[in-house]
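User: Um, any thoughts?
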Amino acid sequence: MRTAVIVDAVRTPIGKGKASGALHDVHAVDLLAHSLRAIVERTGIDPGVVGQVGEQSFNIARRALLAAGYPESVPGVSVDRQCGSGQQAIAFAAQGVIAGTYDVAVAAGVESMSRIPMGSAAAGTDDLNGRAFDERYPDGLVGQGISAELIAARWHIPRTAIDEFSLRSHELAAVATKNGLFDDELAPIAGLAADEGIRVGSTLEDLARLRPAYYDEAMARRFPEIEWTITAANASQISDGSAAVLVMSEEKAAEMGLRPRARIRTIAVAGDDPLLMLTAIIPATRKALARSGLSLDDIDLFEVNEAFAPVVLAWARELDVDLDKVNVHGGAIALGHPLGASGARLATTGLNALEQRGGRFLLQTMCEAGGLANATIYERLD
């Protein structure tokens, strides 16, 4: 059977997703084109977005690859698996390579949240779900912030632990930046050479003074177990950025004289309770491990998207994972979460960390709206 390998991965520095952010003036097509162009320049080859509305709509993948200077013969398609779109793009690229549909693919993602606000695609929609869906969930589902609060409550994760994890994310990202550990994965753009959202100097006392970000009186009555622990500091940042991963068959890489960095070992997707929404990373991880024949002890590093701190903490507790192996260069709480780009960003950062530490296996997973999750296991190649 054919195997799919990653030859290279690159990302932009992540900008703050606000009008004053460094990447706000960069059009989403140009933002994605930058990573697509960088992957070509880095490898010398011949040549997923969530908010598919406005400048990010009408198959941005095709417009961005043309903007990057790719030949007009190169097709493109946009993927929507919400926050996992970039990771799903890698999965689809690998599956096509393994099936023999094509030999080379670039899996990429972009989100300009400062220009296309989160939720724009559904703006003005009176009924998103329809009758049958609402009949199945008569009490209604909730937003991701409330889901994160429910996870913190049901796994009994205290505010202190949540804030400590958030500080850890910033501290690790700051150290990685200072020590140049991101240098090999970054393609600077618009004068931005490092991730813009990393903060240093905060304390637990500072974070404890922050007000809950999602308090709602009706939700408090519906879910009295919620202790309202989620704040702006322990949730992922609204961000702008893009990332790209070059995937090809092992045979094609050898033919082109390119050295594969990693093999895509296992791909899994899973669904879980759409009310809790963010917990599917638990069954997705179990499914990926079962399919790979590996155990948790075999995994050297984990990249778990930090949508909210309790999501990662509940996952680690449920699976008994050592947090010292998780997001070793920080995560979305510090680096940011440009929705459609994050799956490719996690792969890029994780593979670099794996190489720097001489590890063999990386497991990446991320929660997605609707109670979904992707999980992928990569095997580093010497």
About this structure: The chain has a mean pLDDT of 94. The radius of gyration is 20 Å. The chain is about 35% helix and 15% strand. Residues 159-178 form the longest helix (20 residues).
